[in-house]
Amino acid sequence: MKSLGKGGQSLRLNPLVKCRMFALSCVAVGSAGLMYLVFPFILFDFTQPAYCYAEDQFEGRRVAFGPRPRWFLVPPTYHGLLYDGTEWPFSLYRRLCLKWLSEHDYRLPSVWREEPVKEAASMPGQTTAKPGDGGA
Asked: Which of 21, 55, 79, 129 has the smallest set of CB atoms within 10 Å of its CB?
C-alpha cells in the first residue's frame, strides 16, 4: 500500500506492521461478533415475558415483546412491569425476540404487527371507476 508523504515522497508500510494491523482488526471484529452472540444471555431473563403496556391480548393470546430484559440493565417503562417496545434490546435483538414469542405462544404487539393496508374510503362524490370501464 502506497501513500504520498511530504513533498510527493512515497511511504511504504512494513509487511510486519500490515500483518499486525490485519490481526488486530480480525480480533476486534471477532470479539464484537462474540459479544453480540453472548450478550443476550446476560441481557434477557428468558423465563419471563416483557409484556406490552398498550394491549393485553390479541386473538385470544397474551401480547409480549419477547423475553424480559433484566431489571438492572433495562428497567420497565410503565409501573415497573410493562414495556412500550422502544427499549434498545427489543430493537437490537428483534429476531431473537420474535423467535422467543413464537416458541412461547405469545402474540406480537400492534406496533410490531404488519397490518394489511386498507383502501382509503372514497370521498363523497368520487367514483371508484377505472378509466375505460364506462364510468360505472
From this structure: 79
Domain span at residue 85 reads 44-103
pLDDT tens for each residue of the chain, 136 residues long:
455 555 556 667 788 888 899 999 999 999 999 999 999 999 999 999 999 998 889 989 999 999 999 999 999 988 888 999 899 999 999 999 999 999 999 999 998 887 655 555 554 555 555 555 555 4
Instruction: Tell me how far apart the terminal alpha carbons of the chain are, to the nearest angstrom.
Output: 71
Query: Is residue 95, in this structure, part of any structural domain at all?
Result: yes
Q: How many domains does the chain divide into?
A: 1
* Domain membership flag for residue 84: yes
β-bridge mates for residue 58, sequence order? 61
Residue 54: all three cell numbers together: 398498550
Residue 80 lies in a domain: yes
φ, ψ dihedrals at 126, nearest 5°: -90, 150
Using CB atoms within 10 A of its CB, is residue 64 exposed (0-12), middle (13-18) or buried (19+)?
A: buried
